[in-house]
Specification:
31% helix, 3 helices, 2 strands, single chain, Pemi-like Protein 1, Chain: D, two-stranded antiparallel sheet, elongated
């Protein structure tokens, strides 16, 4: 696996699944014993509240989306 020029790396799908990570989840990094540890940040709000926060203000900017595209977006599939 290689870092991008911006220092980004993709977490492999099997690791995301094992860790229970979903799109838009937040993670934190820690450097411990010469290793980098990545762990999920505990949610302070419910998934429904997070979805609402992601969509807040987007109704006027996404009028061109179809109903299926809206459903994908609200389910975190986009």
């Amino acid at each position: 696996m290689r870092l991008t020029s911006k220092g980004q790396v993709t977490i492999p799908q099997n690791i995301r699944e094992l860790a229970g990570l979903k799109p838009y989840d937040e993670v934190e990094f820690e450097y411990r014993n010469k290793q980098i540890v990545v762990r999920p940040v505990k949610r302070k709000t419910s998934p429904a509240e997070e979805a609402i926060a992601l969509l807040r203000g987007s109704a006027t900017s996404n009028l061109e989306l179809s109903a299926d595209e809206w459903l994908e977006m609200t389910r975190g599939e986009r």
